[in-house]
């Protein structure tokens, strides 16, 4: 599980859904939560949170440009690639942390990914879980 520390900067609610903006280093992230802010006391504007997302929910782009609906983007450099028969585990250095992505080996080879490449990791807002910071 990828785990980054962030701080909640804004919360917007509509019905039983909340959109939470988080500052994570110099990157602005967005996550969706079920329920209203008073139902999630550990997640309030100004509070520190852990931003969690699965390795399998991280897509990678190389030479990314143009518009895309995914707002959660991490610019990083590949530090390690482990190739399996079907899958590839790609570890990125990002702002003093690491982000791990599990993609298909075919995608890794088609993108010609190698250690040292700069890539953009992309995560959908609904794939992020927020946890109260310790």
Structure report:
This is Mop domain-containing protein. InterPro entries: Mo/tungstate-bd_C_term_dom, Mop_domain, Transp-assoc_OB_typ1. Pfam families: TOBE. With 134 residues, this protein is mainly beta. 4% of the residues lie in helices and 57% in strands. The chain has 1 helix and 10 strands. The chain has one helix at residues 105-110, and strands at 2-14, 17-24, 27-34, 48-53, 59-61, 72-83, 87-94, 97-104, 118-123, 129-132. The longest helix has 6 residues, at 105-110. It is elongated. The model has no long low-confidence stretch (mean pLDDT 93).
* Helical residues, percent: under 10%
Note the run of SSEs as H and E: EEEEEEEEHEE
Main sheet characteristics? 5 strands, antiparallel
Please work out how many helical segments DSSP would assign. Answer: 1
> Structural class, please?
mainly beta
**Spatial strand sequence of the major β-sheet:** 3-2-1-4-10
Averaged pLDDT = 93
Dominant shape: elongated
Rg, alpha carbons: 16 Å
Number of beta strands: 10
- Approximately what portion of the residues adopt beta-strand conformation? over 45%
User: What's the end-to-end separation, in Å?
Assistant: 17 Å
Low-confidence region ranges: none
């Amino acid at each position: 599980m990828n785990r980054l520390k962030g701080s909640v900067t804004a919360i917007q609610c509509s019905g039983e859904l909340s959109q939470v903006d988080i500052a994570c280093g110099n990157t602005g992230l967005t996550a969706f939560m079920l329920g209203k802010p008073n139902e999630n006391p550990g997640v309030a504007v100004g509070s520190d949170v852990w931003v969690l997302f699965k390795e399998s929910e991280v897509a990678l782009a190389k030479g990314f440009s143009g518009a895309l609906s995914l707002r959660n983007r991490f610019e990083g450099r590949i530090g390690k690639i482990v190739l399996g028969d079907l899958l590839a585990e790609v570890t990125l250095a990002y702002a003093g942390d690491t982000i791990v992505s599990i993609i298909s080996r075919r995608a890794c080879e088609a993108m010609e990914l190698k250690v040292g490449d700069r890539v953009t990791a992309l995560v959908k807002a609904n794939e992020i879980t927020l946890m109260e910071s310790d």
